[in-house]
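Before a colleague's protein record goes any further, I have to sign it off. Would you go through it and say whether the fold makes sense for this chain? Take the sequence as given and treat only the tokens as open to question. The record follows directly below this note.
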Amino acid sequence: MSQRKFDFYIVPTPIGNIKDITLRAVEVLKEVDFIACEDTRVTQKLLNHYGIKTKCISYHKYNERERVEFFLNELKTGKSIALVSDAGTPMICDPGEVIIEEIRKNGYSVTALPGASAVTTFLAQIPKGGEEFCFIGFIPRGEAQIKTKIQKYAGENLIFYDSPERILKTLKVIQNVRGDVKVALARELSKLFEEVLIDNISNILKHYSTGIKGEIVCMVYAEKEPSAADLDIKIKELKDKGFKDREISVILASLFGFNKNEVYKKSLECK
């Protein structure tokens, strides 16, 4: 079956196991004129494994804008380009937005191939209690910023990436804010030492008391009942946006199931 040709391809690469790449991805990487990649050394290992000879051009967050002009000039001559990240699907938490925006603005065709992603691989193997979730990418490093995120999304299943150097500290901050809540934590997905744990934070911390290694994906389970702290945060957010007390009570009662009279009373007290 013949396939439509595009000017620019967004191509997922394996997140761990080198075999987790689609036949179409290999085909595209062989056929394009250039491969834009975060680290040419990392991508070259994948290309060598599959006998792909296509030229690699470095493209990362520090040279995004200067590379855009080069790629646009190549596209003008009829060349085709693929964008990859070191692992997973580009544009999720990796560079690419600048070049995609410019390429679309200049009328070139863009497509994304389906493939590996740590988020979907993680979500496919854990119970969530529903289909809804919130993914925020890499969680902030600062303790105050982490607290803000955790409080803001207390009513949702919150998924984030973190490094092995920081994740245990992050969990302790979450524990201080939300108590000994249930979390799901995965490391080394698709690799030899893959591990997925679903437990309260205290037990997760005990399990990794001597340290943790590997890339981390984590989900903090949503609160079953909205908390008073969560209510205060939502009231303040709406007040900052100019909503009146009566409007706030109706909005929060409708969206989150809070008691309307309780919200109104708290809103009057909130400065």
In short: Residues 228-269 form one domain. The longest strand covers residues 182-187. The chain has three domains: 8-116, 119-220, 228-269.
